[in-house]
Fold this protein.
Amino acid sequence: MSFKKFCPKCGKETEYLIDNLCKDCYLQGKSIFDIEKSNISVCKFCNKTKIGNHWFEVNDELIGNQIANMIKPNKDLKQPKILVTLEKFLENNYSAVVAVEGFLSDILVKDIKEIKFQVKETTCDSCMKINASYREAVVQLRANDKNDREEIFKMALDILKKDKSNDSLSDTSKIIKLKTGYDLWVGSKKSAIKISSFIAKLYNCQIKRSKKLIGQDDNGEQKYRYTFCMKIDEKLKK
């Protein structure tokens, strides 16, 4: 048999008390959660945000998860559940409705707050390198036929664009147009290898590889810059 209790502050009858107060009086002037100051930055060149030591392509779900990670529930709140509803109302400006619920002394409590924040623009490490003419490799595309030159050039850019989400250095820091083709300064050696392998197989042409010593890395190991040259021969085209 359960007995009704009375809140000594407001006199309301209730089945449960939290620290000898009803739920409403206990929560008066209190919050069951706090929100750390939001500090979300997005690279203005590749649209990625940094989480830990890695950069990820930004979207509303990712921003919502970052806001959720900034929520600090009351230490006495049991089984907390966090829901973030995000709305973009201006360029780089967001409103987030944060709802948190859980149990205090076996009583279900819920609180809702709205915060406004701005996603700040920054430049990620990879894009900073690309903008400073960084390149791990040079891809040389050569063809006597103009249509072939433009076709392989477009292929190379498409490959770089597709790889950009996984490899921020998959980009060109410089493009040099020549009479017989293009030189692409590519930030990522892996992407350069992917471009040259794809085009060489498609057009049945050889890849001429070379490397040049350019210094040492932080661990004292030698650093090289690689060159991959492909020349399309009309007689060997598939």
The first strand starts at residue 5 and ends at 6.
